[in-house]
Design a protein that fits this description.
By secondary structure, this protein is mainly α. It is built from two helices and no strands. The radius of gyration is 33 Å and the shape is elongated.
């Protein structure tokens, strides 16, 4: 992937995430369906079936939103790169000769280091 376009990578990653979301949703749906099968009364069975159905519907909507967001991001990146390729490169500014900076260190006239404090015994 050294030379891959980032917009293609964005789309590929979104597809993988969408598949992962849907796989997890199917597992969760299977759990709800199994609970519905083991339910004793009619009302509980209906509630678990409703949860199973809602799980898939919500996961599908989430996957679509994820895919749309990735498509928009990939398209925006591709447009930005196309625009950047059409723009002329920035003009090089002539470099200024490096000026001497004033010495900010304090001037020490003697080459001696400050005396250290002696420890009290």
């Amino acid at each position: 992937m050294a030379e891959a376009d980032l917009d293609a990578v964005i789309r590929q990653t979104a597809r993988a995430q969408t598949k992962a979301v849907m796989a997890a949703a199917r597992k969760r749906q299977a759990v709800w369906v199994a609970r519905a099968a083991r339910a004793k009364d009619k009302e509980t069975k209906a509630r678990f079936r409703h949860l199973a159905k809602s799980t898939i519907l919500n996961a599908t909507a989430t996957a679509k939103r994820l895919q749309n967001s990735a498509e928009n991001a990939a398209d925006a990146y591709a447009r930005a790169m196309k625009k950047a390729m059409e723009e002329p490169p920035p003009a090089n500014k002539p470099e200024k000769s490096p000026e001497k900076k004033p010495d900010t260190k304090p001037d020490r006239t003697s080459g001696k280091k400050p005396a250290k404090k002696k420890k009290a015994a």
